[in-house]
Amino acid sequence: MTQIPPPGSPRGRLAPSPTGALHLGNARTFMIAWLSVRSRGGTLLLRMEDLDHPKNKPGAAGAALDDLRWLGLDWDEGPDIGGPHAPYTQTQRRTHYARALETLRARGLAYPCVCSRRDVEVGQSAPHAEDGLFYPGLCRGRFADYEAARRVLHPGRLPAWRFRVPEGETVRFEDGFHGPCAQQVDALSGDFVLARDPDGAGYMLAVVVDDAAMGVTEVVRGDDLLPATPRQLLLYRALGLVPPAFIHVPLVVSEEGRRLAKRHGDTRISALRAAGLAPEQVIGLLAWWCGWAAWGERLTLRELLPRFDLATLRREPAVLTKQVKAAMKIQD
Fold first, then answer.
1. Is 262 a catalytic site residue?
2. Which among 36, 74, 10 has a CA at the least distance from the CA of 292?
3. Which is the most buried residue in 94, 169, 288, 326, by most CB within 10 A?
């Protein structure tokens, strides 16, 4: 399966989530996405991915936009400025996901599932996927419709929607940073969850629907999402949509190699602002992590633009060392 972006200048996107404050790891990925599009005179949109209601934090959406602007990032379309593909907030786009879900159902590719995580764990007979459990299709063909599945669950619990993965197919694609990638989805993860919402409003389906509807031709994101890409490519094909090019870049991690968390210090952009740092200091650090600046150099994004070269981006994860913490006034 190959990706052929539409002709013309690139359209990229920033997709923050209001589940917490923007931190250095998020900022580095967003910076690379911004540089990639701006270096080629493309269009950048911002979409607020706020479907994860229980984890959403009040005020986090506005704070994320403030932090991005403080760093110097801008966008051409978004929830604050509008654009031809409005709305740019996912909770306002639920009808799009419902239509996509109905298309998949009509093609026999989506079905309701009542299995809990415990049910899946008990039934394991294959290795776990990189970012989840293998699901053997226990609810395939089990229910006539969603309501029939709902009736077997305790009140308050809802069925999930799963995608019926084709058997024996290897999904292949060319990642813009990692190169050739391949995954046999049915053997690794099995039928995967599309959404845990009756109308299909969930990350896996929504991100595919929105990127296609908004004409996104390039997606730059952390390489923790690389294992999910073959599943999304299956959805693009099932819905008759053209996928973007994918570029998965290394994360920012702790000295132990773990994803950033509170125990690693306060790496929120808002905390760095409160500590008196200038945006040029933060951009300089992010650029140094990428291999595009000297240690301690201060830069604006505009000054960094001529240095952008994906081919020279460091292959290893960026590390939050004691040296970085001291320079950035990061408190443990």
1. yes
2. 36
3. 288
